[in-house]
User: What shape does this take?
Amino acid sequence: MGGSSDEMAAFRRLQTQLAARWELINSKGPEARDIVVVPSLSLDGIESVSIDGVLHYEERMLFVLNLLRRPRARVVYVSSAPIHPAAVDYMLSLISGIPNEHMRRRLTMISLYDNSLVPLSQKILQRPRLLERIRQCIRPEQAMMTCFTVSEAERSLATALDVPLYGVDPALLWLGTKSGSRKVFREAGVPLLPGAEDLQSEREVVDAVDELWSEDPALERVVVKHNTGFSGQGNAVLDLHDLAQVSPRSDTSREGREQALADALPHMRFVDTGQTWKTFVEKLEREGGVVEAFVDAPDKRAPSCQLRISPSGGVDLLSTHDQLVEGQDGQVYAGCRFPSDAAYRMVIQQDAQRVAAVLQAKGAVARLAVDFLCVQGDDGTWQHYAIETNLRMGGTTHPMMLLRMMTDGRYDPDTGLYLTPRNEPQFYVATDSMRSDRYRGLLVEDLLDIAAVNGLHYQAWSESGVLFHFTGALSEFGKFGITAVGKSPAEADRWFNETRQVLDRETEKRSCS
Assistant: This one.
């Protein structure tokens, strides 16, 4: 897309207003303010990703409706497909102190009725009348746009709407690629996995794998990653067990080993099952990638730290999570547990702050998450490595924001705990993919009714229960999201497991009737 010089100049002008708009949007006073929410999945390869119901991930940002607790705030929420009114009403019901009807009058939901996997921002830009409608819904002099992620399309859209954009400047997006992340980690002095970046050919991948293997002949697996892969979808795992006969410990020449590696690359395990070596290497050549050692350990974790570099100049710690991963090689994000383990929580938080400081010095303004790999040694201590930085919202963003929406509590960076207004800690387990084929055909109303009858809904008096999200994928794919909250990790687990048990029991009744 690129953008003309006039657009770039207009965008820079708009962004000079961002700090003031940010302060206005987040102020607790009665001032009028507007926010345009564009949850566009502007991620390279989204059009071919093998995630069921991925279009409904646009619902992840419904937590922004929390801004409607300010009595003169207005929200315009744009989505590709209609979001069920029951899902919207449910989110509004989580906000205390303001009648739903009052908030409804200040909320404009706009659907494009376009289920194609073209990123939402591009769809909007292709519809001049829709752009004009959005303009008419906002007061540009007191408005801001927020997105799930940022690309050149979001920059163009912000310019077209004449409102500043909260998000990283697209010119700095390279800092959040797999290669850019490794460079930032080195600059921040944060430990990272052995590997190599800026790889753009099969030859360079072979050389990188050979060098890693030669440095560590006991290495069993390596991971090849596209620079802009997400949710593990751009990853592939090469198992070196199958190449034991040409290992650096053997008598095989380097040339022979490299040829064996080149022959093995097309047979890697691709996380995206729709991927082939041909499509994988084409994207690698186009955007680059990295090779990293795969850590095989009996006890390893995948924690993540979330931060915010605000337009007003602060760096705020938002949360830490232990990510739940699945798949044969544990490369696919499946959910998260808050907070991350106390054994390494504060250490990764400190390293994430160092990363954020480097990014801020380079001009980045954004929500971000720094992902780590933690491995426990025989002596019980944990060693950690930074894996990647996501300069956008992610799967760990909305569970925390939903909890804040419900409780109006705060994250305490000194302990890594979330505290209610009564200073009591809360814990949760969350997933976007609680699923079963038996759940197919359930409507949003059915889910909310089942939860009510079985006492699953979050209750303010007990400060525990279940929050629901990502319900648009339920009827077609039998898939939805939950955040199970408790006053202890065990209670959060109990709510999580009970939700599955209740849904299984209720859908079994239906299948038997």
